[in-house]
Structures are given as C-alpha cells and as structure tokens.
Amino acid sequence: MTPLRILFIFVLLHLTMASKEELQTVIQGNGLFTKQLYSVLAKKEGNVFFSPISVHAVLSMAYQGAGGSTYEALTNSLNVPDHSIAAKGYNSVLGQLNNVSGIELSMANKIYIKEGYELQSEFQEVTAKQFLSAVEPVNFNESEKAAKTINTWVEEKTKEKIKDLVKAEDLNEDTRLVLLNAIYFKGNWASKFDAAETRPQKFYINNNDSIEVQMMKKKSKYNYKEDRTLDAQVLELPYSNPDISMIIILPNKRDGIVKLEEKLANVDLTKITENMYKPEVIVSLPKFKIETEIDLNGPLQELGLGEIFNQKSADFSKMLKTPEQLVVSKVVQKAFIEVNEEGAEAAAATSLQIELRCLPIVEEFTVDHPFVFALVVNQHDFDNVLFTGRIINPTL
Hints:
With 396 residues, the chain is of the alpha+beta class. It folds into two domains: 4-187 and 290-338, Antithrombin, subunit I, domain 2 (Antithrombin, Chain I, domain 2), CATH 3.30.497.10; 189-286 and 352-391, Roll (Alpha-1-antitrypsin, domain 1). It has helices at 20-41, 52-63, 68-78, 83-97, 121-129, 143-157, 257-264, 297-305, and strands at residues 4-11, 48-50, 104-114, 134-138, 175-188, 199-204, 210-221, 223-227, 232-238, 244-251, 280-286, 288-295, 326-339, 343-344, 362-366, 371-378, 383-391. Strands 1, 3, 4, 5, 12, 13 and 14 form a seven-stranded mixed beta sheet that branches. It has a six-stranded antiparallel beta sheet with strand order 2-17-16-10-9-8. It has a four-stranded mixed beta sheet with strand order 6-7-11-15, with no helix packed on it. Helix 1 packs across helix 8 (297-305), helix 2 packs antiparallel against helix 3 (68-78) and helix 2 crosses helix 4. The radius of gyration is 22 Å and the shape is elongated. It starts with a strand and ends in a 5-residue tail after the last strand.
C-alpha cells in the first residue's frame, strides 16, 4: 500500500509558559539548526534568504506526532532532546514574538486536516495549547479549492507578501494534513536613511563584474567592529524597537563571501554583536527586495531528516486517530524581504558633547559587494535569528 501523505509548508512567524531552561534549549537548538541549514542552502549559487525559525517551529510541531526512528531523527536534527521541551519552548517563543512593541512582528501556526479525519487528542491538545495552532478541515480531493483556502490564510498572516504558496497539484486524495507556520516582520530603522541621499552606485558581484544599484547613505553612530577572525566588518542597524536589529557582515575582500560563510558555520549570529563599539559610521547600503521559494526536501535530507520522507519507515502514528501510515511529501518555504530608506519588511537620538580635542574616529561601511545579513531579536531571555541570508546581487 502506498503511504498516505502529509504536506509540510513553511512560510516566511495565556497558557502555561516554558521555564527559562526549556526556552533556552529551543533557542540554542534553533541556533544550531540555523547554521546547519544555511550551510546546505549556501551551496547553491546566487542570493539566499529564508526564515530558519519558521522551519524549526513547524518541524517541532510535527515532532509532537512522531514515533520510533522518525522521532529520533527529529530529535537529532532539531537539536532538542525531547518533544515536550520543544512544545513548551515554542509556547514561550510565540509569546515573546507576538508581544514585541514598536514594530510589526507575528508568528502563527495552522493545521489543515482532511474532512472526515480527526487528530489524536494528545497531538491536538499540544498543538493547540503550546503552538497556538487552530485545526480546520478541508476537502483535499477538491485541490483547487483547498489550495485557495490555505493560501488565503497565508496571505492574511503575511500581509499579502506571500502568495500562491500551495499549488493545487501539491494536494490530492492522499493528502491528510498540511502543517503551516507563518512569520511576518515590518519595522522602521531607529535612524532612517534620507531618500534624497540615495544614489546609483556600483556593486561588485565578484572581483571583475559590477552592476548598478540604488545605494542608500547615512552617517550616524552604530554598533560596529572589525572582526579579524572573520576577515570582515560587522555592523548592527537597529530598528525602532532596539531589541530588533539587522546584522550585516561584510567580508573585507570583494570575493570573500565563500570564506566568510565557511567561518560563520562556527559562529552564533546572536552573539556576533559582542565586543562592538559605537563610533560614527558612514554607512552605504544598497536597497534590495528579495523573494525566494525553496524546496526543502533535499536540504532537510542532508540534515539527517530523510526518515520523514521514507515511505517504508516514516512514523507519524501519533497524529491521526486512523491507523494510516503517513509520510512527508513536500517541504517548501517562500520568503520575502524588502530593505529601503524607511526600514525593512522584514527612535532617533542626537547627542552633542564637548570634550578634549581628540579627533573623532569615523568608520566607513560600504556594502558594495556580496554580504551576509541576519534579522535578529535580542531580548532578555530570547536571542534568536528570525531571517538570514546572503546577497550576491541586490537587483535580483
């Protein structure tokens, strides 16, 4: 008998809360997962952009319904020792992300189930209480209608930035469940760029070839450092909520992106801002808008999750009340980011001080060649990467 299918879809997001230890376990697990998945996705040429926490969250939801070797594979790949820790940790993650002030940030989960089927009570309870996921029955036999229903939810949760995520051909009479996670961010810079200062400028995609981009420019005080280990400059651009920032890591050499990524495989991006100082920095940053659609089946198999796709051994027996064998058929993420003078859809302070006649240090941070960036939340007990990627060509 051909195993029936689950379709996992990732977008690019008052109950019992997790202890600090459980929250930190999930955060650390996602941090390691982020580096591992980035390393796999970076093997392909061109721009890379994705939300690691969205992938990690929905896999953690699937973790609740897994058994046997499938459970073990998820334990190892998610870097979380137990499904209950993942559940309680993500309850706190959702509480943190959905209550950040000063910017728009939200994360949501949803389960679509085939009409006539029911979730096992324990799986339904944990996904509802800990992952705050509603369950909605749909008729997957009517694939066009089912896809429209799912895509409407995705569009609503992402303010219409992610459209047509699910294709009708992804759904059929064998589909039993669709698990979704959506994350949305929009924030203004703490100190906005002046649009009047934006000018055409060269961006070198390698040592020899360049393209013209719209380069924003601003002089202000920013957290900054020269990282000799990475052979790169690091800059932190804060949003209007200072707990949220975009970290830009710029290799010193125009063709240094590959070596930089190799070194970043051993770096926690949430800690990269340590040992920075705050000089005046002349920042030149290209405007860019990136949309990606990533088939994650292959990358997840490289991370040790081939088991969830294995028609003979995949074990999701704790999801449905019916004793049917379930297997993951497709994992896909769409992600979107736009960076401009206002901020990203992804408080200004001025100080005049009089001191001894020391010439002020002014650093220059000119992003005119490929770079790595991450959108990071840094709160008291919550340091996590929401989005990350690399830009080879800002115009694509």
